[in-house]
Amino acid sequence: MIHFSAKSHVHRLVTLLSFVGEYPTHSLHLLGKERVMKELVHRLTVAQTFRNDETGEEHTCRLLTITGKGREKSIRFYKAGLVILGWLHPEAYGYYMRSFWNHRFPGDKAHRERHHRVAEAAALCMKAGLEVRPFMLPRLQNKGLYQIVPENPVFYLAKDIKKVGGAEMNKTMFTRMAGAVFSPGGCYAVYNTRASAMKWSGMGEFKALHSLMEIGRMNAEVSEVDSAVLLGESYEVAVKTLLASEESRRLEFRFDGIYKHIYFIAMNEMGVRQLSLLLLPDWKRKMQEALFDEESLAFDKGIFEYDAFVDGVYVFSHLDSDLARLIRFQEAVTGGDGRYEVVCYPHQLGFLRKYLGGRVEYKIIGMELLEAEMVQAD
Asked: How far does CA 198 lie from the centroid of its chain?
């Protein structure tokens, strides 16, 4: 017998599938220990008896099925298992059926790839503590200026954002946005480039940003949206994305031309911790205060991107993993005659050396030290 309780692995997996539809098997590490999750999924592909620990109700069924091959292998609900959605939330079954064509999935690769991108983004956000369940979130609107979005950090799926305003929002249909995060730390468009360099869709992203700004203004009292979170499997992806951006012939369509800030988050435990820091209120100020004395801070008054001037050295912090800002720093120091230093986490060092080379010096700081300082200041 498998117990269906709020803190169980099966509850977490059912919750995620209830609004993403399908999940890639190679990303099970985002939901828990990979070995444990693989064994659980295998077990759920044959008939099991489930017990709802909250109500005492029992149901015997095959819960999951696996489709596809290789990296496209996907976990979905088995039809007989959909009854379990009623244990999750009264609106979970209806949301699932409306979103996924009454449990009939398109067989093309593009739809599956899209679902996987969104599923991984939602899994990472869920692990970072955001509310990600659409049926638990207030419905967005475009009728007036209201505080609809909760104060605690939340993640809205792109498909639910597009539903606001009907046909007008279809202008963003070509965007690769997976969703949007609203938190005291700001509002961020969320993209997932997985294992490849991010390819932006030009005007589609501008339209998506404009639509998100309107949604934020009318539902969360957000005056400006200029930032995005870019998810990727590793920092190798970040390098590929930066190099591909430099080769773009249309500078206005480069990601740093669309968003002033792009925070790269690797899809692993370190990435979850980095995302959690971005959700803190006034996190930028807290991060700077944790790193530098006030008298050394640049306060955005410098002629190029840096955070502090210490003992004749221009110091740039990449602890926020802001790729757009990193590009501006790299362009400034190339050919410059000053002394430069970059503050980073140990896991960022290899990536930064590949991109910046030996032109700058590097200073390593443990994430646990920054977390302690910022949480204490919160």
From this structure: 14
Find the angle CA(226)-CA(271)-CA(159) to the nearest 5 degrees: 55
User: What is the Cα–Cα distance from 294 to 200, expressed in whole angstroms?
Assistant: 38
CA 307 vs CA 100, 257, 301, 354: distances in Å: 47, 21, 10, 21
- DSSP code of residue 372: H
Q: What is the pLDDT of residues 26-63, one digit of tens each?
A: 999 999 999 999 999 999 999 999 999 999 999 999 99
What's CA 69's distance to the chain center, in Å? 25
Do the Cβ atoms of 18 and 92 come closer than 8 Å?
Answer: yes
Q: Tokens 């980095």 belong to which residue? A: 274
SS3 state of residue 2: strand
Per residue in 109-154, pLDDT (tens digit) is 989 999 999 999 999 999 999 999 999 999 999 999 999 999 999 9
- Phi, psi dihedral angles at 49 (to 5 degrees): -100, 125
For the beta sheet containing 64-67, the strands, ordered from the edge strand earlier in sequence to the opposite edge, are 22-24, 74-77, 64-67
Please, where are the H alpha helices in the chain?
A: 9-20, 34-44, 85-88, 92-99, 109-127, 158-162, 203-219, 235-246, 255-258, 269-278, 283-291, 323-333, 349-356, 367-377
Q: Which residues contact 149 (CB under 8 A, 6 or more apart)?
A: 138, 140, 182, 219, 220
Place of tokens 């939330």: 89
* CA dist list (Å): 22 to 27, 60, 72, 199, 258: 12, 21, 11, 23, 30
Q: In the structure encoding, which two tokens stand for residue 337, read together?
A: 């005659």
Alpha-carbon span 103 to 123, nearest angstrom: 21
